[in-house]
Structure formats: structure tokens, C-alpha cells
From TrEMBL:
This is Ribose transport system permease protein. One of its GO terms (cellular component) is plasma membrane. The keyword RNA-binding does not apply. It comes from the Bacteria. The chain crosses the membrane at residues 25-49, 55-78, 85-101, 107-128, 135-152, 185-208, 228-248, 254-273, 285-305, 311-331. It holds the Pfam family BPD_transp_2. It is a multi-pass membrane protein. It comes from Kutzneria buriramensis. GO terms for molecular function: transmembrane transporter activity.
Length: 346
């Protein structure tokens, strides 16, 4: 029996010898499709779509979805799905406002919320690694508990900061822009860069990919897989908390318990679609950004082509999620075939 425990890449990047045009299509196909989508709606709605005002609106509205997509991306790199992220977003949005209503200063409420996010991520990780509960089931269960806490904290009502005195400071964090691009989206893109750097250039990122693609092989090489899963879940918790803070800041002193779950499925769709581009076959930060960008362009464009049709956003999100699942499944089968091929090569 062979004692070779090396971990070999099964990513779907084009092999050597592949033509340049095919390589570009495989690696950047989704990016090109997103650009084509933008051009299409710019042609269909030249007076409203390709304008600075529209860019400001869609970037302002998609900063939180991008942060949420990053929150589900990090655990997916480690082979886990965090179904509690949307519920956590709702809770931390509520807490960011309610703590200030209770008289806690904004600059103390923010770190408290971030620490709370890390604690929730740790609780998820303990269920997954110590109790050996499937990540999907464990995080779905904790998500429901988080949802209950959100309703308990709000009493089932909308929370409003009287006069928005404290929340005004929080709103100042996002009430700025760089040209036509809203400030919160700039922050979210900066966060994407940070996640990309960590995943691509730091050992922790490489180990996370190994754990997610071949945990048995990773354990055989001495990698402490449990530590990396715990770290990825805690990072997801902190990112969800940051998304809640940005959402609370955008709403300027208004919070409600049921707003978070609606962000979950678009985030999963963006991360799954993102796994088909930039680094095909692997979840990655730039791919996630591409997935979010494609979604926000598609929804904004459809709403302008067919104004007043309120079903368009969930319809587009649903179709995108179906497409993401199908593409990711096909990529997974292809990656498994590549792995089997590598395993029999001398």
C-alpha cells in the first residue's frame, strides 16, 4: 500500500496547452457574462441604468449582501455551509441598535457586537467539531435559536432609536461615497481584498482549502483540521456581525428581527456562482464579488425594464441559486474525476 499522503490540487483551472481563448472563457466566463449583462441593460435603459445615480443606489444596497456572501464563503472554503449567517445578521442588526437605545455608546456597541458574532461562530464550530453534527443541520438549528433571540429582544416590534441621536454616529460610518460608488460598498470590496489576501497568500488560507477539499489527506499530513474549521466558523460569525452593523448604520436607528434571513439565499448563490469563476472549482473571494455584482446588475436592470414587478428580485435570486447549485454540482463531479485521475497517475 502506498504511504503517499501528499495533497494534490483538484481545482478546475485549465491545463497547460489549453488555448488562450478557452482559458479566458473558463476562468473569466462569469466576469464576461456580468459585463455583457451590464451592456445589455445599458442599451435597454440608457437614460436610467448606466448613470451615476443608479450606480450609487445599487452599490449602497449591495454592501451588506457582499459582506454576507463573504461570511458564507469562508466556511465553504473549509467544506462547511453556515445556514445561521442570515439569522445572525438580523440579530446583530437588532443588537447594534438596541444597545445604543439602552444607553451604550456607539463605539462600545460595535466591538460588543463583533465579539458576539465570534461567540456564535464558536458555538456553531463546537456543535460541528465536538458534537459531530452536520454543519448544515447544526447551523440551521442555531439559526432558529438566534431568530428566537432576535424576536425576544425586539418583542416582535420594530425598534426605533428616539431621535436617532446615538445611531447618527453609526450612520456616519456609511454616509459617504467615492464618486458614484457608495461608501459601504467600498468597505465591502476592501473586506473582499482582505479575505482574498488571507486565502491566497497566507498559510491559513492554503490549509483551509486543503481541509475543505480533502480533510482525510489534510489530517494525514498533520494539519489540525479542527482548528481551521473553528477559525472559519468564527470568521463567518464576525463577518455576519459586521454585516449587521452596516445594515443598522444604513437604516439609521431602525431595526427589526425578521430582516436577516432574506440575505442568506442570495449570499449562498453568490458564493456558489463565484466558485465557477476566477478559480473554477473552488470558492474564492473575487468569484464571490463577481457573483454579487452579477446579481445586483441583473436585479436592478430587470426592475428598470419591467418596473413595478415585485416578484423579480426573488425570481432572479431563485433562478441564480438553481443555476449556482447545478454548476457547482457539475464542477464537483468534474473535480472528483480529476482527483481520481491524479490518484492513479504515477
Amino acid at each position: 500500500m502506498s504511504n503517499d499522503t501528499s495533497v494534490r490540487s483538484t481545482a478546475l483551472e485549465p491545463r497547460k496547452g489549453t488555448s488562450r481563448s478557452r482559458r479566458v472563457l473558463v476562468v473569466y466566463g462569469m466576469v464576461l457574462a456580468t459585463l455583457a449583462l451590464f451592456v445589455l441593460f445599458a442599451v435597454l435603459c440608457p437614460r436610467t441604468f448606466p448613470t451615476p445615480l443608479n450606480l450609487r443606489l445599487i452599490t449602497a444596497g449591495n454592501a451588506v449582501p457582499l459582506v454576507m456572501a463573504l461570511a458564507v464563503t469562508v466556511p465553504m472554503v473549509a467544506g462547511k455551509i453556515d445556514m445561521s449567517a442570515g439569522y445572525a445578521l438580523g440579530l446583530w442588526q437588532v443588537m447594534a441598535v438596541s444597545l445604543q437605545i439602552d444607553g451604550i455608546d456607539c463605539w462600545l456597541a460595535i466591538p460588543l457586537v463583533l465579539v458576539g458574532g465570534a461567540v456564535v461562530g464558536l458555538a456553531n464550530a463546537l456543535l460541528i467539531e465536538l458534537a459531530k453534527v452536520d454543519a448544515f443541520v447544526a447551523t440551521l438549528a442555531t439559526g432558529q435559536l438566534i431568530f428566537a433571540i432576535s424576536y425576544w429582544r425586539t418583542g416582535g416590534r420594530q425598534l426605533v432609536d428616539p431621535g436617532s441621536q446615538q445611531s447618527a454616529y453609526l450612520h456616519g460610518l456609511v454616509d459617504w461615497s467615492i464618486g458614484p460608488v457608495a461608501g459601504p460598498f467600498v468597505l465591502a470590496v476592501a473586506l473582499t481584498v482582505v479575505v482574498w489576501v488571507v486565502l491566497e497568500f497566507f498559510p491559513v488560507g492554503r490549509y483551509l482549502y486543503v481541509v475543505g477539499s480533502n480533510r482525510h489527506g489534510a489530517e494525514s499530513t498533520g494539519i489540525r483540521c479542527r482548528h481551521y474549521v473553528v477559525g472559519s466558523m468564527m470568521a463567518a460569525g464576525v463577518l455576519s456581525a459586521l454585516g449587521g452593523i452596516l445594515l443598522a448604520a444604513r437604516q439609521a436607528g431602525i431595526a427589526q428581527a425578521d430582516i436577516g434571513p432574506g440575505f442568506l439565499l442570495p449570499a449562498l448563490a453568490a458564493a456558489l456562482i463565484g466558485s465557477t469563476t476566477i478559480r473554477p472549482g473552488r470558492v474564492n473571494a473575487w468569484g464571490t464579488l463577481t457573483g454579487v455584482t452579477a446579481t445586483m446588475i441583473g436585479i436592478s436592470g430587470l426592475q428598470q425594464v419591467l418596473p413595478g414587478q415585485f416578484y423579480l428580485e426573488p425570481l432572479f435570486t431563485g433562478l441564480t441559486l438553481v443555476a449556482a447549485i447545478v454548476i457547482a454540482s457539475l464542477a464537483s463531479h468534474k473535480r472528483a474525476a480529476r482527483a481520481r485521475q491524479l490518484s492513479v497517475e504515477p
